[in-house]
Design a protein that fits this description.
418 residues, alpha/beta, eight-stranded mixed beta sheet, 13 strands, 32% helix, binds guanosine-5'-diphosphate, binds magnesium ion
């Protein structure tokens, strides 16, 4: 089953289709558009109707392990490349085309689920390796996308914006490529020093990237914030892959105006609609990105999925549980530091974390009545840590006040944000 069906195959309408989508933009679709139709009239693409396949209800939380139920490996991507002379024929061909299924293992280990190149594959295909920065406004789903690409929950996710505070490095090993992704804090107007540091981290990733993912939500017209980010990305001169995320949340005929609004933007080379949460369009995206990787040998061992130490991941997991457990103020005033992380063969690992808040009153809220709130955070964090590490863990949480740490350079430095 292909992705888009061009309802009219008349030469005239194909011609219209050809002219209404610029030749330097490639639109990628995937099999989430199970029953899709692209209707053209003599002036413009009139309508894009896409009916998603019925799917199982999605869980909104990750287990700390490889994604399971939501990942439909058979949901094969199909490309619609409108850049070639022969594009209408290509569309027709692609409609019938199926992507080969991409098997995956159930290995729980940090790195083991991916498919590094075997030596025979490496002999035949030139190897590509490079950096991909995932950029966009807060909460568009950047961290969810990184996890979807890796098939592993590496980056923490919450419904609140600005969950990600540091650049997260995730390595996707494929038979003919190694793509090193930077998940970044969302780009926003910075009001305090911590936010300035977050935005700086995002732009740093942008500068290091070979290709930039600009992630947006499928809203009808581009927001000024999206356009500002896009301009900034375009200034680097590097290719931009526009990823429209959360396509599961909109009627599919809303996608075309979104595509139309972005397709002519400078350096936007590809447009890929996805649902990171539902793993739709992710394989298509990986294939698109791979093309932009320079021809070179891998930088990292192919067994590796990240270069962050377990200590860092442990702090992130605790922070995520805080984001999920408390209301508006607490998560943003909180920073987590791992004071001790000891592997004790034959015993549980011992992890001691300090949660810093900005004021004494926040300490009380964090701990909760009879310590219940913090206990819950600790339990959820420990369970996820145990899954991540594959070992039993004894996790101790302490709360301390670091006044106005978000605004003080010395504190930001000591907490690793600068
Ligand atoms: P980030 O701030 O850009 O890193 O965004 P997150 O990855 O933390 O996601 C923010 C929220 O959007 C979370 O509640 C995610 O579950 C949700 N989300 C991410 N991708 C999708 C998607 O494809 N569809 C839907 N419906 N929600 C999504
Ligand atoms: Mg994030």
């Amino acid at each position: 089953m292909g992705a888009l069906r061009v309802q009219s195959k008349s030469i005239k309408k194909r011609e219209v289709l050809r002219t209404c989508i610029p030749t330097d933009v490639v639109l990628w679709t995937s099999r989430w558009s199970h029953a899709a139709s692209l209707t053209v009239n003599d002036n413009f693409v009139e309508n894009l109707t896409i009916s998603p396949e019925p799917r199982k209800p999605a869980s909104t939380s990750f287990s700390g392990q490889k994604h399971h139920a939501q990942h439909d490996e058979s949901a094969a991507p199909t490309s619609l490349n409108l850049a070639d002379e022969d594009k209408s024929e290509k569309i027709a061909d692609l409609i019938e085309q199926d992507e080969p299924a991409n098997g995956s293992s159930e290995n729980n280990h940090l790195a083991a689920h991916q498919a590094p190149a075997s030596s025979s594959e490496r002999d035949t295909a030139p190897f590509r390796c490079g950096y991909v920065a995932i950029l966009g406004q807060p909460n568009v789903g950047k961290s969810t996308l990184l996890n979807a690409l890796l098939h592993f929950k590496l980056s923490i996710v919450s419904p609140k914006p600005q969950t990600t505070r540091k650049r997260i490095l995730g390595i996707l090993n494929r038979p003919a490529s190694q793509m090193i992704f930077f998940d970044t804090p969302g780009i926003l107007e910075a009001h305090y020093r911590l936010q300035q540091a977050l935005v700086r981290a995002a732009f740093q990733a942008m500068r290091e990237a070979d290709v930039q993912i600009m992630m947006i939500e499928p809203s009808a017209s581009p927001s000024p914030a999206d356009l500002a980010i896009l301009n900034r990305l375009a200034d680097t001169g590097k290719p931009i892959v526009l990823v429209i995320n959360k396509i599961d949340t909109v009627a599919k005929d809303h996608l075309l105006p979104v595509i139309a609004a972005f397709q002519n933007k400078p350096n936007v080379k590809e447009i890929v609609p996805v649902s990171a949460l539902h793993q739709d369009g992710i394989e298509a995206l990986a294939e698109v990105l791979e093309k932009y990787m320079p021809l070179q040998e891998p930088f990292y061992d192919s067994e590796l999925m990240t270069d962050h130490p377990e200590r860092f991941l442990a702090a992130e997991i605790v922070r995520e549980k805080i984001f999920l457990r408390y209301g508006e103020e607490i998560p943003y005033s909180t920073s987590v530091q791992i004071e001790e992380f000891v592997e004790r063969p034959g015993h549980k690992d011992y992890i001691r974390a300090i949660i810093f808040v900005e004021r004494e009153s926040q300490k009380g809220i964090l701990i909760g009545k009879g310590g219940q709130a913090l206990k819950q955070v600790g339990k959820l964090a420990r369970e996820e840590l145990e899954q991540l590490l594959g070992r039993p863990v004894y996790l101790e949480l302490f709360v301390a006040v670091k006044e106005r740490w978000r605004e003080r350079e010395s504190e930001l430095r000591s907490l690793g944000y600068l």
